[in-house]
Please model this.
Amino acid sequence: MLVFEIIRVALQAIGANKMRSLLTMLGIVIGVGAVITMVALGTGAQQSVESQLQALGTDVLTVRPGQGWHRGVRSSNARMYVTDAYAVESGTEAITMAAPEMVSNAQVEFNRSNANMRVTGTTAKFAELNNYEVEYGRFFTPEEDAGRRRVAVIGGEVPETFQSTPLDMLGETISIRNVTFEVVGVLEAKGGSGWFNQDERIFIPVQTAQFRIMGTDRIGSFNVKIADGVSPTAAMAQIEQVLRREHKLRVGDENDFYVQDRAELMGTMQEATQTFTFLLAGIAAVSLLVGGIGIMNIMLVSVTERTREIGIRMAMGATRRQVLTQFLLEALVLCLVGGFVGIAVGFGASKTLADLANWSTSVSPQSVGLAVAFSALVGLFFGAWPARRAASLDPIEALRYE
Model:
């Protein structure tokens, strides 16, 4: 029997029981579709985190308060002030600029609409330091910060939250905790989504935030920009030296602050999202194995039903290898057809999640190739036992089978 004849007979056998073949392929379709969708979610999350950190700048360090001591007792959070940021900026050669941040969620109102948004008190250097571009209007000035003026710069997606447009909000007033602010600028949207949406933020002068909104002079963190040619390690050492002096820490005392390198953070987040991707793909791959078991079950039933047919073929000269190949091909075709349908399902599910749930998804050619190859291996693995059983039948006993 020629190879093409074996393939033709295998396809005829699949087509003879269309509904059963369709139901058998369903497990592979779901498995491949799930693998592609889960990998797309993981890859999209990884790319989103990477794009956000790249947009914020990798030559930027973030200084946050750690645990401190008060009257010999270890407190949960040390204190950090705007003066710490200014001391680092003026007292180190490795740092070109610093921008403190006071962050709090607050109720914001505009045109009878309100939303709970992230409000950040900072200085006029924030936009330049963090690679933000002002699309409309301007950023607030140092004079407005010193004068505690009620001016605000909004993120690129804030107008959409209030069902408005950037130009309609520019020059208008918004209310933050019942304090009115004039919108003087709208930032260009950076895009992406991660642990929070950086385009849904409102920025106000730090001194205005201290005395009019948040009622405290403590800051949550400050960012610093490293000078060209200076390594992050050297910059961290200078920051540590200045802050230990500012906080009056003695020799042997632990730092009550810590410095975070965004480049290291990017690597950590990439590793975490990659692990998350593998975990999702592994969970989805289980459904492929379940589909493979279904194929083995149906192929064993098919061997039993076609025992007499197998005996006739062997009596007419078909070898055991040809019978083995025929049933292997049937299992392989079932898995491959299911795999290609599963690819379409995976693409559709990924696009649906991106459009409806606003999740970042990215279908990579590697995930598609891996899913198809895995489905083919499932077909060969789970089809091997039924095919071997068919090939090992005794022709005489098979012809007698009723």
Q: What stands out?
A: The first strand starts at residue 60 and ends at 65. The two ends are 25 Å apart (CA to CA). The chain has a mean pLDDT of 83.
